[in-house]
Amino acid sequence: MVDEQRRQVHLAAGAVVNAVSMPATPLGEAVLHGLVTALQPAAITTLPTRGGRCPQWLLLTQPRHKPQAALADDLQTAGVRPIRSGEPVVLPVPGMLRPDVQWICPPSPRRGLPAYSVVLGLARRACHTHAAHSRTSGGTSVG
């Protein structure tokens, strides 16, 4: 859908595409690394940042095939948020420079999108890896 007043293009999450938002660092970067390492496709945009929040990424995924179950506590604590069905997913548009919405990793028509479960699985792994590292080094938590 084209919103001429806001000068943006968006899709409704659900039947064709789903999405998951999460903090860009360190979680989003870890998920992107996991996708690339596993030779999985990736399509990631930035999200508008409001009120001093840390930068957020939006990872586009294949549609879910089952109704969404409750998100695991560790993912919620880390700032992972599934985009609800029907919620708009704003996409960067070439030639319409919006500094708040840009491609981190543009989609490839030949590669498709990663499975929703793969993205959540990689996010969960990153949460556990970061938590284990934090316990041994005295660092901070993800999110």
The amount of beta strand, in percent, is 15-25%
> What is the straight-line distance between the termini?
31 Å
Summed up, the domain count is 1
Query: Rg to the nearest angstrom?
Result: 15 Å
Approximate helicity band: 25-40%
What's the short version?
By secondary structure, the chain is α+β, with helices and mostly antiparallel strands. The chain is built from 3 helices and 8 strands. The mean pLDDT is 84.
3D structure, described in words:
With 143 residues, the protein is an alpha+beta fold. It has one domain (2-137). Helices cover 29% and strands 22% of the residues. The protein has 3 helices and 8 strands, in the order E-E-E-H-E-E-H-E-E-E-H. The strands form 2 sheets. Strands 6-3-5-4-8 form a 5-stranded antiparallel β-sheet. A 3-stranded antiparallel β-sheet has the order 1-2-7, with no helix packed on it. A hairpin with an 8-residue loop joins strand 4 and strand 5 (56-61). Helix 1 (24-37) packs across helix 3. It is globular and about 50 Å long. It starts with a strand and ends in a 6-residue tail after the last helix. The model has no long low-confidence stretch (mean pLDDT 84).
Keywords:
single chain, 143 residues, alpha+beta, 5-stranded antiparallel beta sheet, 3-stranded antiparallel beta sheet, 3 helices, 8 strands
Show the helix and strand layout.
Blueprint (H helix, E strand, L loop, with lengths): L1 E2 L4 E5 L5 E6 H14 L6 E4 L8 E6 L11 H6 L2 E2 L5 E4 L11 E3 L10 H22 L6
Antiparallel strand pairs: 1-2, 2-7, 3-5, 3-6, 4-5, 4-8
Helix pairs in contact: 1-3
